[in-house]
Amino acid sequence: MGNRASNHEEISAFLSEFEYQQKNFSIQYDYPQRKVFKAAKKRNQISHSSNRRCSQNIKKSLEYKVEGNHYIQLKQYKKAIESYTQAINLYDRDSIYFSNRSVANKLLNRFQEAKQDAEKALKIDEHNSRAHFIYGTIILIEVQMFPDTTESLIKQAQLGIKELESAQDQVKISKNEQKNKLRVLINQNLAKGKRMIYLIRQEIDKRNIQSLKQTLLDISHRQQLQLDWNLIEQNIKRKIEIQMPEYFVCPILFEIMEEPILLNSGLSYDKSSIQQQFRQNGYIDPLTRQSIDPLSLIENIQLRNGIIEIKKEYGWIGIEHEKDYKAIRFE
């Protein structure tokens, strides 16, 4: 299956938390320790008498977490899992520890373990966007593994879509710049998941059509009727493939735009991607190299409405071209 060859470099680069990591693990733990400790006290999990011991456990757990993040960068995922497990054994109320271990398990194709860790992370913090992302993605991968194509698969896939949409909502709420990369992965898997549902429905429709044709053929033979098969084919013809306009795709992200912004150069880009380009390179069109007036940026309403209409009509929108839903590669 394609998912076993997922882009490890892209995922491991930012799906784990690296905000406390420095060279040679020389880290100041005061701020993160206070942050975790304060959250624990707020949940009434720490009594006054156990403050000191718990504080030491939290500090040590943070060291293991950073160690795990380091192993993720080195692509030593088994060692990363060991480090995250040590952190969890010392302090099991930090949602990030579980979602980070979930990432490492997924990168090793340990899908059940990854799903379990994501579920545990969400029990601690229902707003953990990474956990929603992993949980939803694993559900979609499990759908691909099922041997039979049935209506129940669609319902299961819709659960995965729901989790990814929850992840998307959390990333939209967040102002964290690093989560923009996670947002790209979420959008990719959302599009692929909806494409998968579309292809599953196609397979079910084909099977039902063949059954219907055989039934009509049997009836016509028994009653000695002549059927107009051309007319029947027209009436039961399945949906045609979606021809995706190239201008729906952001020239920077190569993904379908969500908030298309029109520049005075005449080109449109997704809002998040072009804003990042402006921050890095100044107000210059990345394709035409034309100077851009920041006050002239306007939302491309017609383009946005066109994208929304296709989403409503087909239930998915993306640049995927797989014909077999089991061949779709999730990030």
From TrEMBL:
Name of this chain's protein: RING-type E3 ubiquitin transferase
TPR repeats: 61-94
InterPro entries: TPR_rpt, Ubox_domain
Catalyses which reaction(s): S-ubiquitinyl-[E2 ubiquitin-conjugating enzyme]-L-cysteine + [acceptor protein]-L-lysine = [E2 ubiquitin-conjugating enzyme]-L-cysteine + N(6)-ubiquitinyl-[acceptor protein]-L-lysine
Pfam family name, one: TPR_8
U-box domain: residues covered: 243-317
Coiled coil segments of this chain: 74-128
Example of a GO biological process term: cellular response to misfolded protein
Gene Ontology annotations for the cellular component aspect, listed alphabetically: cytoplasm
GO molecular function terms listed in the Swiss-Prot or TrEMBL record: protein-folding chaperone binding; ubiquitin protein ligase activity
The species this protein was found in: Paramecium primaurelia
Top-level EC class: transferase
EC number annotated for this UniProt entry: 2.3.2.27
Keywords: Coiled coil, Repeat, TPR repeat, Transferase, Ubl conjugation pathway
